[in-house]
Every structure is written in structure tokens, then in C-alpha cells.
Predict the 3D structure of the following.
Amino acid sequence: MKGCSFITKEVPAYVGNYTKNRARYGKISEITVHHAAGIVSVDALGQLWQKKGRAGSSHYGVSGAQIGQYVSEDDIAWTNSNWTANCRAVTIEVSNSSGAPNWEVSDISLQTLVKLVADIARRNGLFPLVVGKTLTYHSMYTATACPGPYLKSKLQWLCDEANKLADMPEDGTSSDKLTTLRIGPASAGDVLTLKRMAEDLSVPFAEADGLMTIGGMSAGDAVTFTKKADELGLPVQTAARMYIVQAGFFEEGNNAATFFAELHKKGVECSIVPTDGGFRVQCGAFTKKENAQAMVQQLAAKGVKTVLKEV
């Protein structure tokens, strides 16, 4: 699918619930925000759009730190209850954190939404975003309470925050440079110490033959790891960026553990890495992109869908 490079799950909608080939009807000129009218996961939204006869879909779904994609931006999702608006919009359904009448949305979901909106705007030339023009909402096009009073009250804030990220890199990280370190070779005990540090700080890591590759991370975290390496008497080098093969992302650790076990039954080696907002199930971290791409292809041959993330 064409679209955001840092989605956490891809769940293709049933072909009868959207229209292929947007180019026949126009081009993208706005982003439309909806609320899901419920507390839902990105998987649950995807399952909804996969139902035959649903006659509805969205390009993306946001729930906590997770982003699901269901329809390619090259195609037209049926979300806005208005054909003309559908033809020109990239649409996003956002999970609520409470029910009626306020239909609130969690802070984590809002922050994720900001990054997604900024990414869509950057790739489609929509900056600066303006509420009611390039950033629209469902009730502009039909008689509906969507996107709910809470999310509607946040639209100007969303617009302002997304506009601040106009120069955001394609991987969805902030524009601040991230650091990746190589530490070692290290003993098994020192490797365990560094792994635990990485997990505590929600920093990606990989280990091979006692050599730890840790990052990308903030400058402050890099200083923390450098000091620990000095304490352990281990050599430290600045490494290139890492490429992570992500098989899944979950807000709850129990769900990540269940998925981890399912992959192991298929003979897939993976690990669970705590991150901001949840738990990533990853199947390797590589300093060379071609090696990560090869892993993606190997897993696809086993029926395992993954997302390649650069950190």
C-alpha cells in the first residue's frame, strides 16, 4: 500500500468496500478526521473494513501508539459519507478512550494522530494545514456527531502541532538526530545488563556474538549507555542507523507475548521490545538495509507480514 512508512499494522480492506485508482477522480487535497465511536484496536477496525457488504472503510486507524492502514492512499476509502469529499481525502478513524457523550480520545492517540497527519500532509503537499480546508472532519459533509465533541475541540491544536512537524523525516521520528551505538564485544553478563537498560529506556537493540547495537536514541540516552560501557570497560563506537523488522505492535504486554508465542510456533525468531506506548515484536535489527529487506522477504514466505522501520 502507498502511504505512511511507520504504520504498525496493515489490514487490507475488502475490495468491495473502497474504490481503486483515485487518479481517475482527482487528487488528495485534504485529511479528514473521524472518531471510531468506541474503544477499538487497529486490528478491530481492520476487521470491520474486511467485512463483505460493509460499504465503508478508512485509509488509517489510530489507537494509542498504533497505526493501522487499510486502504492505499492511491485508492478512495469510503468514510466521509460524501463521494466528492472521499475522492480528495485521506481519512483517519481514531479510537475513543471513553463513550458518549464526550467521546474522549487518549493523549497517546492524539500524539500518534499528530505524527500521522503531519506525515500525510508532507507527502501530499498539504502544508500549512488549515482546519476546515486541508484538515477536515466528518460532520462537515453529513449530519453526524462525528468526530465527537472532544476530538472536534482538539482540531485546531492538532493542526498547529502537525504544522510544527512540516520537516519531519519519513520514518516519523522527530527532526532531532538519533544516535546508534555499538558496544562490545561483551561477556554474557554484560550483554544482559545492556539489554535490560535498553528495555528500561525503550531503546531498540540487537546482539550478535557479544556485540551490542543499541539505538536510535536521544543524545541523553547515548550518554547513559556510554557511561555504563565505561564502567564495564567495554569499547563504544557510533554506528549507522538501524533497520528493524517489526512483526507487530501491542499496547498490552500480554497480547505481545501471545503473538510472540504464535511466531515461535512458526519457527520465527523474534523478541519483545518495550517502547513508548506499548510493546514491539521484532524479528531482527540490522545496520544494513538490504539485510533487513531480505528478512522481510523470508518472513513473507512464511506468511508473516512485517514492517521495515528505520531508527
